[in-house]
Each structure stands twice: as C-alpha cells, then as structure tokens.
Design goal:
Layout lengths: L1 H21 L1 E7 L8 H13 L4 E7 L8 H6 L5 E3 L25 H12 L2 H8 L3 E5 L7 E4 L7 H4 L3 E3 L2 H9 L3 E3 L6 H6 L5 E4 L1 H6 L8 E3 L11 E4 H5 L3 H8 L2 H17 L1 H8 L2 E3 L3 H25 L4 H17 L1
Parallel strand pairs: 1-2, 1-3, 6-7, 6-8, 9-11
Antiparallel strand pairs: 3-10, 4-10, 5-8, 5-9
Length: 337
C-alpha cells in the first residue's frame, strides 16, 4: 500500500510539473507608456492568452527590459522574446524597411500603411536581414503621416524652415535637411525635454506621440497638412522563441495578428476624431500649409531622397529599386481597392 501511494504521489507530481512546464511566458519590450502605438501589442497578448486558455502569456514591459534603441539587440541575444522598435533608431541594422520611411510616398491612411508594410516585411530581403538579428518581423505599428508641433511663429514656408531645429528621424530627417532644417534624432522619450530646453524648435510626430510624450503641451502650433512621411516601427519576435512554440501556440499567435491590427486601427481612428478638440483644449493653433509650399517641399525632398536611397541599397547588395517598386505597386493596389 505504501509503495502504491508513493508511486501515485510521484505520478501526480510529475503530471503537475509537466502541466506547469508546458505553460509559455514571453517577455515583451516596448517603451513609454500604454498608448495608441502599443494597442496592437496589448491586444495580441490578450488574444493569445484567450486562445490558449492562459497557457501562453506575454508580460509587456514599458521600458523595464531595455532602452528603445536597444530592443533589436535584446532580441538578437534572446534577452526577451518580443519587442517593438523604430527603423530610424538604427538604420544600418534594418536597411530594408527604411524604404517605408522615404518622404512623400503618398500613403493616405493607416490601412494603406499596413498594406505596404506587410508587403515589404514579406520580401525575402527583409526576412534575411532580420534573421541576422535572430528576429522575425511579426507586424507593423502603423502611424499616420507625421506633422510638426512648434514654438514661436508657425513655419509656413520653406524659407521659414531654414535653420529650423527639428526632431525628425530617418527619412523624415533627410527630408527636412533637404530644405535647410537641422534634424536631430533624439528618441521619442527625449523629445519633450529637447523641446523644453530649446535643443529643438519643432518635433515631428504622429498625433498619439505628441500626446503621449507631452510635446503638444510645449507647442504653440501644429501643421495639419504637411504630411511629409512617417516612420516604420516593426514588432519582432526572437526566431528561436518562435520556433520553440508548440503548433497550437504558434497558431494562436499567427492567427491573432490581423485582429490585433484591426483593433489598433479602430482605436487610432477614435484618437483622430477627437484631435481637433485636443488642440483647442491645449490652446495649440492648427495651421494649414499652402499646397504650393508642400509641392515645393516634395520636389526638393522626395526624388533626391528616393534616388539616393535606391543607389545606397543597391551598392550594399540589396534590391533597392525592387523594394521601392514593391511599395509603389502595393500602394496603388491598396488605393484601387
């Protein structure tokens, strides 16, 4: 009887241990605070947990695991399983996706931004480049066209932008540089302090970031229609962690991506609907740039940036022209549908 009880207890403990060991827990590195920019990550975690009965969970850390510029490095060494980063933070590490940051691509809404990002992320060149960092591109963090908030008098012409100190990363920074501005690539979390201290006169962000990082509270004005471009911020997973998932866990993750993005789009639409009331509440003047000035800006920034980017990529052995054409063709299809 004692032998039987001992065996039974041992089996029960083994089953309990196996059940406990079977649970999968991922750490996810993002930054700032929960906001429109992270809603798809939050929704993804919720959906995955629901679909697996709580056996696959994600702990989302807002800055506790890594600095935002170091998230890709953290993924590469397996410090955490999932992370969000922006291409402009380390353009040399994610050259392929920077095609999505070229100025004046003509993207009109977030649905189109999702379409072109998916197309680029699925290209073999993007897959291969990310694999060098043990990273798999999972989904984008679609953002509207960036616009400026600034202090003092609004910058209404290109002449006004001469010497303007602007927080703008990646292709946007190059665009402003082309018209005589002085871009700086301080991180999103540093933008408020840079504006408050006078390091920059203006900050280029999407609406949610102006709110989340407080730059709207320093602003006297906001450009409603400059729309020079946006940044691309992928969510990636560690390849080893992804491949170690069970079939059911991987299916739960993969099948939740589109739903998470749909949630993100719906949430962002609500933010955009109340944006004008936010400006009024904070006493920020909404300014409209003359279309002729925007055309002049586009002529000076778009084509030179595009040609320089393509030449640079081709010189590094990457299919620059092919990637740019992929964006243009995918965007045309998205607009047509």
């Amino acid at each position: 009887m004692n032998r039987f009880m001992t065996t039974a207890c041992s089996m029960a403990l083994t089953v309990a241990f196996v059940g406990e060991a079977a649970a999968t827990e991922w750490n996810v590195s993002v930054w700032g605070k929960r906001r429109a920019f992270t809603e798809h990550v939050e929704k993804l975690a919720e959906l995955v947990s629901e679909k697996t009965g709580g056996e696959f969970t994600m702990n989302i850390s807002y800055g506790g695991l890594s600095k935002n510029r170091e998230n890709l490095d953290g993924i590469s060494i397996g410090a955490f399983e999932m992370a969000q980063f922006c291409a402009g933070y380390h353009r040399d590490k994610n050259r392929v996706v920077t095609v999505l940051e070229l100025p004046f691509l003509g993207v009109e809404n977030l649905e189109q931004e999702v379409a072109v990002s998916k197309a680029v992320y699925a290209h073999p060149a993007a897959t291969e480049e990310m694999a060098q960092w043990n990273a798999k591109l999972l989904m984008t963090s679609p953002m509207p066209q960036y616009n400026l908030v600034g202090t003092g008098d609004p910058r209404m012409t290109l002449a006004d932008m001469e010497g303007m100190r602007v927080r703008a990363t990646g292709g946007l920074g190059k665009a402003f540089e082309a018209v005589g501005a002085v871009p700086t690539s301080v991180t999103a979390t540093e933008a408020y302090q840079a504006m408050e201290s006078g390091v920059v006169d203006t900050v280029a962000f999407a609406q949610h970031a102006h709110l989340s990082f407080g730059t709207i509270n320093q602003a006297d004005w906001w450009t409603a229609n400059l729309n020079p471009g946006t940044v691309n911020c992928p969510v990636v997973v560690n390849i080893d962690a992804y491949e170690s998932l069970s079939d059911a866990e991987r299916e739960a993750l993969d099948s939740s991506i589109d739903e998470a993005l749909d949630h993100y789009l719906a949430n962002y639409a609500e933010l955009l609907q109340k944006w004008d009331s936010v400006l009024e509440e904070k006493g920020v003047k909404k300014v409209e740039i003359d279309p002729a000035v925007i055309d002049e800006f586009r002529a000076k920034a778009a084509e030179p940036a595009r040609e320089a980017w393509i030449a640079d990529m081709e010189a590094q052995g990457l299919p620059g022209q092919e990637l740019y054409d992929l964006v243009v063709n995918t965007l045309a299809e998205a607009k047509g549908s």
